Amino acid sequence: MLKKIFGKKNSSNKNAKTEEEILALIDRDRLPKHVAVIMDGNGRWASGQGMVRSAGHASGVKTLKTILRAAVDLKIEAFTVYAFSTENWKRPTAEVEFLMKLFADSLARELDEMDELGIRIKFIGRLDGFSPYLQEQFDNACRRTANNTGVKFNVAVNYGGQDEMLRVMQSLAKEVQAGNVAPDDIDVSMIEERLDTAGVSPVDLVIRTSGDMRLSNFLIWQTAYAELWFTDTNWPDFTKAEFYKALLDFSQRDRRFGGLSKKK
User: Fold this and answer.
1) Which of 13, 88, 140, 217 is catalytic?
2) Does residue 47 fall inside a structural domain?
3) Which of 19, 99, 126, 258 is the most buried (most CB within 10 A)?
């Protein structure tokens, strides 16, 4: 069962079942510019299959490739995924080590294709927390795709929304201390230009899989007016059809941004 908040179900969704049928219902002029995804449920999926958790993470990478390609096809402006949080270091050592290897292997395997698709990759978070080898791979991927004009693909690794805001405040505090900025002159633009996602539009739609309904410290500033969409489906089982359902639901919502409804 799909769980949704901040939007009513639309009856036109009920009869559409195939990817093509759902896609045909979407108003392309009302697609989100920036989609953010909390890819949850890899471990739960693996446990349900009688597999080790690492198998779930490996399967999740395949799902990510499918959904990212769908975002490319729809010309979504920005696509951000929560790949590894600042809290994920608390997981078992073997699982963390597998994830580090999975990041490295996936980049090596997929970078050529992403570059050909015009995807611009950026890794956000405290990158200095990773090994020099992995940092070099992250940097190489970013430099190689920096001039691409397609989907802005942000991968949040060693990332936490509160940590990001802390880093922004520390940066501004240093500017004030140096006498370069007066406290009263600090404005929204000065904050946003210091965010990890600087230069990318605010998040329009957050998708979270695997049943939990919370942001889990993800893009706190950027999701201030984002629409939220939740599903019980574990990430490895998340399909293009379900992605299209989320986009369809988004396209039918009345976004007021604190103002009056635009619907008559």
Assistant:
1) 88
2) yes
3) 99
